[in-house]
Design goal:
This protein folds into 3 domains: about 200 residues, Rossmann fold (3-Layer(aba) Sandwich), CATH 3.40.50.300; about 35 residues; about 120 residues. The protein is of the alpha/beta class and about 375 residues long. A 5-stranded parallel beta sheet has the order 2-3-4-1-5, sandwiched between helices.
C-alpha cells in the first residue's frame, strides 16, 4: 500500500518515513484516530516502507518482489490481530489467523472500513468481537520465529481496545521484552479503553479526521462524481472517508436507524399526554432488542449523534449541522427546540449507560424500555 494512496495526514507520513529512514523506529506505536481517518492503511504503508527497504518517502524501491507481496497483503513478516467471533465454521476459540483470507479481502476492498463493516463480514449476530488470549498466544508464537526475509517482523493489532484482560496481560509481557527486530503497531479509535500499562509502553500518534476538502477531492478523483455532490457528501461525512463512501453508494446503514430513531422520539414525545404511547415504546424496545448487540450499540451511537445535531440546530450553529432527515414529516428544525442545555447531558448519560449495559450482556429489552421511559421525561425538560 503506497503512502500516496492514503488521504491527507501528511505530517504523520513525513514523521513515519523520516524516523524509518533514520533507523529510529520505536518498537511499539499506537495509532489513535476516528473511523475513516486512515489509521489501518497508514500502518500497512509504514510496514511496507520498513520491510521492503523503500526510500525517498514512498514505497517504490527496488525490492519489487517485496512490494508485490503487499499488493495482496501477504508478506510473511507482516502479521495481524483483530476482533473475531465464533461462526458456523469456527465454533470454538476463534483466532485472527482463522479469518485471514476474509481479513485480506476486507482490507483490499475497504481499507478505510470500520469495525462495524468488519463485523458485517464476520456475521456477528448477537455476539461481540474480542481479541482473546488465544490470539495473544498466536502473536507470541509468530514473533518468536525468525523473520522470513531476515529483517523486521511487524505485528499490527487493529482495534486494540478490543483486547480482553487476559490477552492484554500477555501482550504486555511482549511489549516489555519484545523479540529482536520486532515492531508492534496498535490501532484504536478509543485510546482510553486500552489498559494504561500498554499505552505507557507505546509511542502514540494521533490522527485527525480528514478535512472536507481532502474527502471531496478523493471522491471526485476515485469515484468520478460531480464536485458539488462530492462537497455535499464530504460535509455529511464529518472527516470519515468510510462514511463518505457509504453515503455515496447509499448503504450508510444496514438497518433503518433514522426511521427507528424518529419512531422512538415521537412515541416518547406523545407519552406525556397519551399513556398508550408507553406500549409503543415497549414494542419499539422489543424490535431493537432483537438486533445483535453490536448493532444495538451502533444504533445508540447514532441516536447520540442526532441529539447532538439537534442541539447544534437549536443553538443556531448551522455550519455544524450536516444531518438531512429522510423520514417523511420529520424536520430537524422542529425537533431541535426539545434538545437544549438543560437536558442534553442527561440524555447523553442515559444513552451511554444503556450502551454500557448492552456491552456487558444485560437484558436489552429491559435496558431499552428503561431508557425509553426516561426519555419521555427528558424530552419535555425545558
Amino acid at each position: 500500500m503506497l503512502f500516496s494512496e492514503i488521504l491527507g495526514q501528511e505530517h504523520i507520513k513525513n514523521h513515519l518515513t523520516q524516523s524509518a529512514s533514520s533507523g529510529r523506529i520505536p518498537h511499539a506505536q499506537l495509532f489513535v484516530g476516528p473511523e475513516g481517518s486512515g489509521t489501518l492503511p497508514m500502518a500497512i504503508a509504514y510496514a511496507q516502507y520498513i520491510l521492503c527497504n523503500n526510500q525517498n518517502g514512498e514505497n517504490t524501491g527496488e525490492n519489487a518482489a517485496c512490494n508485490l507481496k503487499f499488493d495482496k497483503i501477504a508478506h510473511p513478516d507482516l502479521h495481524f490481530a483483530y476482533p473475531t467471533v465464533t461462526t458456523n465454521e469456527i465454533k470454538k476459540n476463534p483466532k485472527s489467523i482463522d479469518f485471514i483470507a476474509d481479513w485480506r479481502e476486507f482490507i483490499l476492498q475497504q481499507p478505510y472500513g470500520g469495525l462495524f463493516d468488519w463485523y458485517a463480514v464476520l456475521g456477528v449476530e448477537n455476539k461481540q468481537g474480542e481479541i482473546r488470549v488465544d490470539d495473544a498466544q498466536e502473536i507470541l508464537k509468530s514473533l518468536s520465529l525468525k523473520s522470513y526475509e531476515g529483517g523486521h517482523k511487524i505485528m499490527i493489532v487493529w482495534m486494540a481496545d478490543k483486547l480482553n484482560i487476559s490477552a492484554s496481560n500477555k501482550l504486555l509481557k511482549l511489549l516489555e521484552e519484545p523479540p529482536e527486530k520486532t515492531i508492534f503497531i496498535l490501532i484504536s479509535e478509543n485510546e482510553e479503553d486500552i489498559i494504561q500499562t500498554i499505552r505507557s509502553r507505546c509511542q502514540i500518534l494521533h490522527f485527525n479526521g480528514l478535512s472536507q476538502a481532502v474527502i471531496a477531492e478523493a471522491l471526485v478523483a476515485r469515484e468520478n462524481i460531480d464536485p458539488n455532490q462530492a462537497q455535499k457528501i464530504a460535509h455529511q461525512a464529518q472527516g470519515n472517508f468510510n462514511k463518505a463512501l457509504h453515503l455515496l453508494h447509499d448503504d450508510s446503514e444496514e438497518f433503518p436507524f433514522e426511521e427507528w430513531f424518529v419512531t422512538w422520539v415521537r412515541a416518547a414525545f406523545r407519552a406525556k399526554k397519551d399513556a398508550s404511547a408507553i406500549q409503543d415504546l415497549i414494542l419499539w424496545s422489543e424490535k431493537i432488542a432483537a438486533l445483535g448487540r453490536e448493532s444495538q450499540k451502533k444504533f445508540l451511537e447514532f441516536c447520540i449523534e442526532i441529539f447532538r445535531q439537534a442541539l447544534m440546530m437549536n443553538y443556531e450553529a448551522v455550519e455544524l449541522v450536516y444531518f438531512e432527515p429522510k423520514v417523511p414529516k420529520f424536520k430537524l428544525e422542529n425537533f431541535a427546540p426539545f434538545v437544549n442545555g438543560n437536558n442534553i447531558q442527561d440524555i447523553y448519560n442515559e444513552i451511554s449507560e444503556a450502551m454500557y449495559h448492552v456491552e456487558r450482556n444485560g437484558n436489552a429489552k429491559i435496558i431499552l424500555t428503561d431508557l425509553s421511559i426516561k426519555l419521555t421525561r427528558l424530552i419535555h425538560k425545558k
